[in-house]
Amino acid sequence: MDYSDLFTKNLPAQVESPPGQAEDTKYVFSVTYTDRDTMPVQGFVDALADIMPREGVELAKYPPPQGHVGLREYIASALHDNRGMDVPVDNIFLSSGAGGAVGTVLDALIDEGDTVLVEQFCYSGTLGMLLGKRANVIHLPTDEDGMDTSALEQTIKDLESKGVKPKLIYTISVYQNPMGVTLSADRRKHMVEISQRFGIPILENESYADFRIDGDPLPQAMYGLDDEDGVMHVSAYTKLLGCGLRLGFGVVPEPVKDVVGRLRFGTSPSHLTSMAIYEYLRQHGDEYIDAVARSLGAKRDAMLAALGERFPPSCEWSNPHGGMMLWGKLPEGADTWNTLEKAVQAGVKYNPGAVYRANRSPNNYMRLTYSYHDTNEIAEGIGILADVFEREGLFDNA
Ligand SMILES: Cc1ncc(COP(=O)(O)O)c(C=O)c1O
C-alpha cells in the first residue's frame, strides 16, 4: 500500500530533537521517571486485591466518560485540601497522564498560527505539541519566582498593538520543568488579573505539586484564585505512582466542559488502573507522598554533591525545593545539544537546554533528573558525564 497521499494534512509538524536522545543508556538523567525505590509495587497488588471483589464487575461496562467516580472524588478532596481549589467532581476528567489532559486542552483551543505564551524554558513534551500544531510560541523571562508577569503584561500589550491576541498562557507553575522554580503568590494574583483583563485563559500544569521536599509551602493554585472561568488545571499520578500507569487529570471550568467531553470520546484511561490508584491512595496516599519526598530529597542532595565534586565551579546548578530535576548552566559557549551523543556513547543521558526552546538553537543549559536512580548510581553517572564534558571541552569556555 502506498500511503503517501493517504495521510491527513493535519499531521503534527516534525520537531527536531538532539542526536542520541532516542538511544537507551545505563544512566537516565533525561526523564522524570517515577522514583523506583519508593514505588509501591506490592501496594498495588494489595490495593487491587481489596478493590476487585467490590468493583471488579464494573469492568464489564465502559467507564463513565470522565473516569472513575471514586478517584475523581479523591482528586477533588486533595485539590481542596492541598491546592485551595473547590471543584465539582463533574469538572474533573481523568486522562492518559498529564500529557493527555494538556493535549485535550490544546486540541480544544489551539490552531495553526495561534500565539501561546510560555516560560523562558518550557517542558519539551508540551512544547512539542505546540510546535506540532504550528503554534507561535513566545517564551517569557522567568526567574526564581516563576514567569515574570510584568513581562507577560507588556508582551500582551505589544502583541495587541500589532493586532495579535494570544490564545493561551501556559505555565508549569510548581517546580517548573525544567527550571525548578515555583510561581510566587503575588505573581499568581497578577497572572490571574492579566488573564481576566485581556481575556486570555491560563493553563496551569501542576504535575509536580505532590513533590515538595522542603522550603515554603506551595502557594494556592490559580484555579482557586479565579472567579471568571479563565483557568484550567492539569496534574497527574504518573510521576508519583508510575509513569507506565498513564493516569492524569484535567480540571476545566463550565464553558470548556462540553468541548472537552466531545474531544475525549473513547480516550478514558484504563478503569482497572484508576481503581488500583484510587484504592492505593485512599489507604496510603499521605504517608506515601511523605516517603517519596524523603527519598527525592536524598537523591537531589546526592546529585548536587556529585556535581559539586565532579563539575567545575564555572557550572551553576539550581537547588530546587521540590520536583525531580536540576537545571544547569555551563560556561558560555558550551554546546549541550551536540555533546549529548558523546554522553550517550558513554552511557549517560541528559536533556540539552535547547529542547525547551521553540527555536531549538543550541545553548549552554541542561536538565538532569534525579528521580529514578539510587544515590550510588547518581554519583557514578554524574562522574561519567563530567569526564565526557571535560574531554569534549565544555568546561574550557569560561
Ligand atoms: C510538566 C509536565 N507535564 C506533563 C508531563 C507528561 O507527564 P505524564 O506522564 O503525566 O503524561 C511531564 C513529564 O515529564 C511534565 O514534566
List the helices and strands and how they pair.
Layout: E1 27-28, H1 41-55, H2 69-83, E2 92-95, H3 97-109, E3 115-119, H4 124-132, E4 136-140, E5 142-143, E6 146-147, H5 149-161, E7 168-171, H6 185-198, E8 202-205, E9 231-236, H7 238-241, E10 248-251, H8 254-263, H9 271-310, E11 316-317, E12 325-329, H10 336-345, E13 348-349, E14 351-352, E15 365-369, H11 375-391
Parallel strand pairs: 1-13, 3-4, 3-7, 7-8, 8-9
Antiparallel strand pairs: 2-10, 5-6, 9-10, 11-12, 12-15, 14-15
Helix pairs in contact: 1-9, 3-4, 3-8, 5-6, 9-11
Bound molecules: pyridoxal-5'-phosphate.
Pyridoxal-5'-phosphate binds at residues 32, 97-99, 123, 125, 172, 177, 205, 207, 236, 238, 243, 248.
Strand and helix order: EHHEHEHEEEHEHEEHEHHEEHEEEH
Quote the CATH topology of the domain at 60-283.
Aspartate Aminotransferase, domain 2
CATH architecture of the domain at 60-283: 3-Layer(aba) Sandwich
CATH C-level class of the domain at 60-283? Alpha Beta
Bound molecules: pyridoxal-5'-phosphate
Q: Beta-strand level of the residues, as a percent range?
A: 5-15%
Strand segment count: 15
- What level of helicity do the residues show? 40-55%
Cα radius of gyration in angstroms: 21 Å
CATH superfamily of the domain at 60-283: Type I PLP-dependent aspartate aminotransferase-like (Major domain)
Terminal CA distance reads 55 Å
Mean pLDDT: 96
Structural class: alpha/beta
Overall body shape: globular
Low-pLDDT runs: none
